[in-house]
Amino acid sequence: MKRYIPFILLAVLGLLINACYYDEELELPQDNEPITEEVSFSADIQPLFDQSCVQCHGGNLNIAPILESDVAYDILINEGYVIPLDGEASILYRSLIGDGVALMPPSAPWSAQKINTVKAWIDQGAKDN
Ligand code: HEC
Fold this sequence. Notes:
By secondary structure, the protein is mainly alpha-helical. It has helices at 5-27, 41-52, 72-78, 91-97, 112-123. It is globular and about 70 Å long. Heme C binds next to helix 4.
């Protein structure tokens, strides 16, 4: 009987890993409706920054990256927070889901819809549109 124990442990471990994987999948924004229309930086993205980011990433606190409308686009691209065509790898997107970097905004995570909009904008080429 003893010699089966390692196999039973492996099976249990396998189940646990599988369960965690599933939890993560369900929380990922990709599960929502995909965004097919073209996303506009000035009309769709900057207003979201104005609402919930610039109070820290601008003004008196001025935490990097500065996300105020006059500089946000250039900073995101030039300082590597956004990698055009690659939302998954972009720190901007990863900050919104807390993947490897601090979750943003820290105390009020965005809805999947807003997060998807940012990801779609990056995946569409992160245009200055
Ligand atoms: C309450 C203040 C606050 C708000 C609101 C806020 N941030 Fe931040 N943000 C911070 C702080 C503080 C850091 C530095 C975090 C750290 O290193 O732990 C940071 C860091 C970041 C970084 C850099 C992450 C890295 O590791 O390089 C990005 C990108 C970011 N924020 C994006 C955003 C976006 C986008 C929003 C709005 C959706 C937002 N933040 C809202 C305080 C804030």
